[in-house]
Amino acid sequence: MRIVSVVGARPQFVKLAVICQAVAARSEPWIHRIVHTGQHYDRALSSVFFEELMIPSPDHDLGVGSGPHGEQTGEMLKRLEPVLEAEKPDWVLLYGDTNSTLAGAVVAAKLGLSTAHVESGLRSFRRTMPEEINRIVADHLSDLLFCPTELAVANLRNEGLAARAILTGDVMYDASLAFSEAAERSDGPLAKSWRRGEFCLATVHRAENTDDPNRLREIVEALDQIAKTISPVVWPIHPRTQNRLKDMGLSTGSLATLGPVSYLEMLLLESRARFVLTDSGGVQKEAYFFKIPCVTLRQETEWVETLENNCNVLADCHQATILKAALDIGKAGPWTALYGDGKAGARILDALASHGS
After folding, report:
1. Cα first-last separation, the chain
2. Does 355 participate in catalysis according to the annotation?
């Protein structure tokens, strides 16, 4: 079996690590090629993940870099097509909802290659989100749709895609089980500085928050108040967010700000946090995996299952609602199993093998 994984952004590297581990565990030979589009190219957002998660170096690095959606996606289409033509895989494997996912889906479909989408069936039902467009296109073009939850399967059923949908569980849950012990064993400065339950963790990176001055200001002011009245706030800041803060002259002096952290460092912070504030879908889930209450800085979430029992609360960007959610955070739980049994990677390979090419 010959497969090609197309990745380009930080969350996809974590999902890719699970597939790499599953391939390595196979007794029969699998050929697995990795294409890195270069969507995330900074070491803190890219190569450190390959090193830390023991992912083989990419077989093809397209070096696309950043840029407006159309420009970036267009470059990916141009550079990816000859790679997939040369590789001639049995399956092209796509992950998540980035521009790399979109480009991989379009090129593979145009070339008539069999395509499978990992983390399929998620919906925010907001077409204004670029990620939503990417998810929908990837799902409708792919031949197999690997779903993390029952709700994801239901979403695909409602779109007439039930025949392609397979419930596998969540590869991110596989990853958290595989790497959380290594994260806790780490002996770096974060492990020494931040003890369990003595801080809250914040992440803010979505364009809807970082590119809107009013939304970003409300969020920063809310984090400032939380840091001064409830709990210290640790905030690893995405480079794009850092640039926006600088442009707006917003102060983060009351917050414990960090540069981008590695995956293991993020797992460590998530598992030790008193609660999490985030606009990241992946961080919402990982908080749930560790049974850490979460405040989501958006109007909606693709992971609506996490909203059960106050485990995750939608607070949008408003300072008052964020503060209220933070004050009420102790009411979270109980926590139920939502994301499978940690064997999603193996199920994905089984499905690829059983469906042929």
Report:
1. 9
2. no
